[in-house]
Each structure stands twice: as C-alpha cells, then as structure tokens.
Amino acid sequence: MLSKGNCIIGQSGGPTVAINASLSGVLQGIIESDAYNSVYGMVHGIEGLLQGSYLNLSEQFKTKESLDKLAITPSMYLGSCRFKLPHYEVAPEIYEILFNFFTSNDIRTVFYIGGNDSMDTVVKLSSYAKANNLSINIIGVPKTIDNDLPMTDHTPGFGSAAKFVATTMLEIAHDTYIYNIPSVTIVEIMGRNAGWLTASSALARTSYSNAPDLIYLPEAPFCLDSFVEDVKRIQKQRKNVIVAVSEGIKDKDGNYISATSTAVDAFGHKQLCGAGKTLENYLKDKLGCKVRSVELNVLQRSASHIASKTDIDESIMIGKAAVKSALEGKTAQMVCYHRMSNDPYYVDVVSHAIEDIANKEKVVPRMWINEAGNDVTEDMLTYLRPLIEGETVMGYANGVPVYCDITHLHTKTEQK
After folding, report:
1. Known binder of ligand: residue 185?
2. Concatenated DSSP letters for 342-393?
3. 268 carries a ligand binding annotation
4. What is the overall mean pLDDT for the chain?
5. Quick check: 184 and 291 in contact, CB under 8 A?
6. Residue 240 assigned to a binding site
7. Which side of the chain, N or C, has fewer Cβ within a 10 Å radius?
8. How many whole angstroms separate alpha carbon 189 and alpha carbon 180?
9. CA nearest 283: which of 182, 410, 172, 174?
10. How far apart are CA 339 and CA 347, in angstroms?
C-alpha cells in the first residue's frame, strides 16, 4: 500500500447526474482507507489546475451528510473544461507546470473523472509520468451520458439520462395523444456516433402507448425516403406518430443528416445543427399534417429529480473502487463495470489499461437494431432496463431541490 501523501481529483467533459456521485465515492473511499493526508480538487479540470485553481476538499467534505448531498447534486461540483492536453513532446512546459504542482504538494495519486476526451488526458499524464520515472498513480473514473466508453458495461451517468429520456418520451406521448388531429412529433436525443441514449427511449413504451413508434440510431444508415415511408406506414395505424432520432444520424455514405456547418470543437468533433429540425422541415413538404420537432438538448444531462438510484449507487461504488485501485499501486487504468448477471442484475468493478479505452468509442451493436434500422431489439431492452431502476431521495427547500453550493464556479475569486 502507498505511504501517506496527498491526492487530487479532477472532472471534465460534459455534465451528468452521477459524476458528483463518483466524486463522493472517491472521497468516501479515501476517508474509509485513511490513505491520504489531504484531498485537493481541480477547479475546471486540468485547464483550471494549469491556471492555479484548486480547492481543499478535505476541509469541505467531512461528514456523511455532506457526502450524501454531493452524491445527488447534478453536474460537476469541481467544474469542467474542454481542454485538449497536447502531447508532452509538443508542449513539455505544460507538463512541467502540472508535475511541479504534484511534486510540491506531495500528490501521490491523480483521479480524473470524465468521458472519452478526459481519458485521453489520463493517457497523456500517465505516459509522461512513465517516461520520466515519476512515482504517481493516474486513475481514470468513467462518466458520460453517451455510454460510449469501451471496456465498461455502461458508464456512470448513462442510466439517469436514459431514465430521463424514457420518462420524457412517455410524457410527450401523453401530451400528443390529447389532440384528435394527425401529427408527427420528432424527438431529437443526444448521441453523435453512439445511439445508446436514443435507444433508451424504447423504455417509455407501455401497454397503452407504443411511443416512440420509430427509433433511428447513428449505427444504422438513415435514408430520408425510407423515413417518409416508415412514417406513412405508422399513420395508417395511428393518427399520432412519435419518432426518436439521434442527433448524429447519418446517410449510407456517413454524412450527418443535420450537418450544415463546417465548424468543429476543440477535439475535432463536427458541430451538428439539428437533426430533428432537419427532419421536421423535410416532412412538412411530404405530409399533409402537423409536424413538430423537440430537442431535449442539455436537459438530458443534469436532471437529478429523475435520477436512477442504480446509477447513483453504482457511481459511488466505482468511485470507491478507483481508490482501491490506486492503493493497490495501479496506474494508467480506468475502473469499469463488469456485468455479472441480468437476473438478478449485478455488476462488479474491474480496472482496464487506459490505452485500451482512450480515443476509442463503443457503439450500439448492429444486432441490437432491427433489420429495417428503425427500432431496437429485445436484447437492447434487456441490457437497458436494470440501469434505470430505482429513485433517489432528495431534500427540498422552498419547493426546489437542495444541492451543494457551487458559488466557487460562477463568481470571480482570487485563484490559489
């Protein structure tokens, strides 16, 4: 086991309902192990640390009550960044700043919580430490509503986002069915290249509602003409058609249906411009009925009021497992869920080499999409159902939820 020193935790990428539960789990694991003297938190991820911004989390989270509140607080208590860390051979000065900080503050372990791009940061920090024979453990903790990290059965944050999508889809169905007029409602759901979240809309189906009637994922080629025919076929059975589409649906040549801009983000991802609205405008010219599109957008990411208890509990568990991995001397690893059973549902936590995960993407297996490419299979539903189970207990004041104070993220303060 490592001798006592300090550690630091960072969060980056997009927010989720469960990323603070993983942060709480790391803190709980540290307290239970008594393996570190102090725990620091990067404010706004690795980019914030480069600017000298960090907190002493040991001073802020000392009680079970504070850790429990953190676990149900949405988004990222420590703040985030979209900073692409360059390779150390390209920008050695950046690594000198970071590792000088680690050395001067006796940092023995870095825990970094995030998705695909965050795991790229874990790879690069680990590679620098290894190349320079530096004794510091770098552990990745997964999160992303997209569920697209390989080697893990699913990702913290996905189950809660899936629960939100399914619940919202059911509520849209109730909203839609009240009018005795033909209509088509297109619901656009996040998912650039992986359709996991859109697939979860199928969980909304009940004995009285088949919504969504059609589901389109990026993994199956999308054809506008076939889409129109699919909608017309459903219209022969029901006056209201509800469609779920991933933001990243593509044609047979791999072109995004919604991409009308050449803009890209810091990581080179193409900026998409509304698949739902694109399909709405196309259908209006083809059908003689009301057509509207709904974009769930950022609402999918931080809806703690509809969080999955399974997701929150597992996120705490994986945070604790990350501490265990560090204390076993592991580095350049990401902790992952391994599904042991569907009935009863049970997962274990294992660790995998980060180079097998970073800059790679897990997409929906084609066999979990029907042959026509407009729905998902029962195997997909079997995979999804356990992940949205259970509801969390939240505290309220003046009618709204009580979360952790994040004043440090939205006010200008002197950096340390």
Report:
1. no
2. ETTEEEEEEEEEGGGTTT------GGGB-TTSSSB-HHHHHHHGGGG--B--
3. no
4. 93
5. yes
6. no
7. N
8. 26
9. 182
10. 4
pLDDT band at residue 285 under the 50/70/90 scheme = confident
User: 3-state DSSP call for residue 31?
Assistant: helix
CATH class of 5-144+151-157+304-360+389-410: alpha beta
Phi/psi at 256 (nearest 5 deg)?
-65, 135
Res 271 pLDDT > 80 = no
Active-site residues, by number, are 146
How far apart CA 308 and CA 361 sit, in angstroms, is 24
Cis, peptide link before residue 218, omega less than 30° from 0: no
- Domain-wise residue ranges, the chain: 5-144+151-157+304-360+389-410, 159-300
- Fold observed for domain 159-300: Rossmann fold (3.40.50)
Mean pLDDT for 34-61 is: 95
Q: Is 406 annotated as a binding residue?
A: no
- Tokens at 69, concatenated: 């509140």
Radius of gyration of the chain (CA): 22
